[in-house]
Specification:
The structure is a homodimer of 445-residue chains.
Chain A lengths: L11 H12 L5 E8 L9 E2 L3 H10 L4 H9 L5 H9 L5 E4 L5 E2 L6 E6 H6 L1 H25 L4 E3 L8 H13 L4 E2 L2 H7 L9 H5 L4 H11 L4 E3 L5 H15 L7 E4 L4 H14 L6 E5 L4 H9 L6 E4 L1 H4 L9 E8 L2 E2 L14 E6 L2 E6 L7 E2 L2 E5 L2 E2 L6 H13 L3 H4 L10 E3 L1 H17 L5
Parallel strand pairs in A: 6-7, 6-11, 8-9, 9-10, 10-11, 15-19
Antiparallel strand pairs in A: 1-5, 1-12, 2-4, 3-5, 3-17, 12-13, 14-15, 14-16, 17-18
Pfam families (chains A, B): NAPRTase (PF04095), NAPRTase_N (PF17767)
InterPro entries (chains A, B): Aldolase_TIM, N/Namide_PRibTrfase, NAPRTase_N, Nic_PRibTrfase-Fam, Nic_PRibTrfase_pncB, Nicotinate_pribotase-like_C
Catalytic activity (chains A, B): 5-phospho-alpha-D-ribose 1-diphosphate + nicotinate + ATP + H2O = nicotinate beta-D-ribonucleotide + ADP + phosphate + diphosphate
């Protein structure tokens, strides 16, 4: 989705608060922290993704006449506020954990430092963009791990929750290690390899499956043939017959199974193909796959060479949303936090330091051992470095995931969560802010 | 999302098959049926939604130079196919069940009748657009039912799976009976009322909660004040204090609870407000709500007047994808079907007749008692009627849902599924097509 229109992709209360801040002369700098509160047992880690798209969007965010007219039509914003929006350029700083980095609960993925009205307006947009890609990359990392080196193809566009989720999802999947996408637009937009086989409809459009196979293989000699439209093993035998018929001209790469007992069918198909001297034909499996089913197929010894994964990955079916938050942690240089039950936030600008032993969330000014994960990516409203190529994020993900403890890379819940500590200085700041707020809000006056 | 670019929102195999059909001279009319294979126990019915957006998109679908260049870059399509795409105008017919109609498994939501290459190219787009809105409308109908007449506000944009899901979701939610959305862009685009209160960040930006309440109420006199940033009951008392302080000028409409034990807090808050003579202040609840939690709150007698519902509704958390399919059911006037295990399709062009006793899926040419649900909406690539106002779909949904048997409107799984029969003529056609295909594909040649 282009950035146009996204300036209105905000909740009404963000405009109301921005207007109130302006009207009250509250123009000091705020820090907002974007983080995930909890990791459920279905995820041992999250894979940060989406920051590059957010930065691009923030650089381009403008309120044109049409958007201002929409806001004016709401009948509650005065002209001076609309004039401020007409001049709006995001002027703040953004710190982000690079795409492709494993992250954990309560670690800021993004920190925005900007005049409070500006930073407030980004809330919904930042949460949606970074949240969606992080959600989908995190799911895909599990699918890729389960496939144990076999290529995974993204087949999810048709079942994704909307157009943007399919496109942003294809990008996030590729960062997480998915080899290619079936979606042509996603491939073109993000530079992802595009892959595809054939659908049942092509087979059905012919009276005889054998005729469909022959026609498609002549058109696309190195295709994968889908064999389960009618009777799967008969379909495999027809591929063998086509190989005999075409002789030297037979260059079909493999077959696809899309229904039934994939382990049993793959085993039988492999036997038929091998007996016919077609050992080089690959077996491609799809249909209702997720990381658990892939792992079970491979554990059962199913001779499957590649997987097409759709629905469950495309909507992160076992965890369709993250408990993501975008919270004010400082205003006018003073730490802020909520005290609501179960929804506490760490105050101030922060940094995450990663060592072999685990992570420490610290104050941004601290210098602790390890790698500082939050990097400055925008200052003064401008990008600090060119957009990172997707391949770099993908490589970083592979390297960083491989460096995680084995228990975290497993599909099952890690017995012991990854250690994320809070530095003594941040803990002290937390205590002081908490005490200050409690004192200021004692009683009910 | 605008239609621009959506011409490439297709899986590569759709272009490959379209090209193969063209190359083979297969230009006969195809029928593709869009339907949901199964309803899981979490849904007693689905609410059809998204057809209007699909029709708009199909009318505008064009392959411009940029899209053609993307396809050319794939290196597998000859210029004559690209030239055909350059001239492409969807020329087919579309039949759709009107938005806001409850539908069931195996009932076609959409049937596309067009030259096979054209109809094939729409597969991913049609499934994604109609599937997403139907998924989200179906979830929202349950939330609205649980709220039992109390307004539900869509707070889901931040956690929705992408920008498009948030915008299309707001539309689908409104059709299903949700009163308003927090998203300004969704409101502007779809003409949905926009609503909002205030965030914790506004309270936090002040040293004292009382000061934040006073400032916000002066700016927005008829606001809802969010009381759970620090201590919820203290927050309620501060609203009471503000009412005393402001006297006649106090026009605050209510309070919002966003965390903790909402039933207990609502009861206590109601007591405090009533004791202070603020019986007219409403209690608005949000935070982790879905249809079950809303039903439990109301069953417990919680004095809540309106609900803000986000995550669980915005991603249809208990059912994040439908088992939706887009299948060839006829080509060149001859019925087609898959025989894959668990994935059978009903052949030919169909109609769904609804009576008080249930539905019957029939051949399109049949005239059975009851309301014919599938209506022609496009012919020759053009809309047959102006876009239906969203309010009409919303009204239709309310009326049609109210007409469902009570067991289907309940949150719990209906003991007996809604009766969906197959007409004798369709059953006979199904048997004949099946026998024809089995005979044509007997053996393995």
């Amino acid at each position: 989705m282009s950035a146009q229109g996204l300036e209105l992709f905000a909740d009404l209360y963000e405009f109301r608060m921005a207007h109130a801040y302006r009207a009250l002369g509250m123009e000091e700098e705020a820090v907002f922290s974007l983080f995930v509160r909890r990791l459920p047992p279905q995820r041992n880690f999250l894979l940060a993704c989406g920051a590059e798209d957010l930065v691009d969007t923030l650089e381009k965010l403008r309120f044109g006449p049409e958007s201002l007219a929409c806001l004016r039509d709401l009948g509650e914003f005065p002209e001076d506020f609309l004039a401020w929006l007409a001049r709006f350029r995001f002027s703040g700083a953004v710190h982000a954990i690079p795409e492709g980095t494993p992250v954990f609960a309560n670690e800021p993925l993004i920190e925005v430092v900007a005049p409070i009205a500006e930073a407030q307006l980004l809330e919904t947009l930042a949460m949606n963009m970074v949240g969606t890609q992080t959600l989908l990359a995190s799911k895909a990392a599990r699918v890729v791990a389960a496939a144990a080196g076999r290529p995974v193809v993204d087949f999810g566009s048709r079942r994704a929750q909307g157009i943007d989720a399919a496109l942003a999802g294809a990008r996030a999947f590729h960062v997480a290690g998915v080899a290619s996408t079936s979606n042509v637009l996603a491939g073109a937009r993000h530079g992802i390899p595009v892959a595809g086989t054939m659908a049942h409809s092509f087979v059905q459009a012919f009276e005889r499956e054998a005729d469909a196979f022959r026609a498609f293989a002549r058109q696309y000699p190195d295709t994968i043939l889908l064999v389960d439209t009618y009777d799967t093993m008969a379909g495999v035998h027809r591929v063998v017959a086509l190989a005999r018929e075409m002789g030297e001209g037979f260059r079909v790469r493999g077959i696809r199974l899309d229904s039934g007992d994939l382990a049993a069918l793959a085993g039988q198909a492999r036997g038929i193909l091998d007996a016919a001297g077609l050992q080089h034909l690959q077996i491609f499996a799809s249909g209702g796959l997720d990381e658990w089913r892939i792992a079970a197929l491979l554990a059962a010894g199913a001779p499957i060479d590649a997987f097409g994964v759709g629905t469950d990955m495309s909507v992160s079916a076992d965890l369709p949303a993250l408990d993501i938050a975008y919270k004010l942690t400082a205003y006018a240089g003073v730490g802020r936090m909520k005290l609501s039950e179960g929804k506490r936030t760490l105050p101030g600008r922060k940094q995450v330091f990663r060592t072999a032993e685990g992570d420490t969330v610290a104050l941004a000014a601290e210098r602790l051992p390890g790698e500082a994960l939050l990097r400055p990516v925008m200052a003064g409203g401008h990008r600090l470095a060119p957009r990172q190529p997707l391949a770099a994020a993908r490589q970083a993900a592979a390297t960083r995931i491989a460096a995680l403890p084995a228990a975290l890379r497993a599909l099952a819940p890690a017995g012991v969560p990854y250690p994320v500590a809070v530095s003594p200085a941040l803990a002290a700041e937390d205590g002081q802010v908490r005490a200050r707020i409690a004192a200021a809000n004692a009683g009910t006056a």
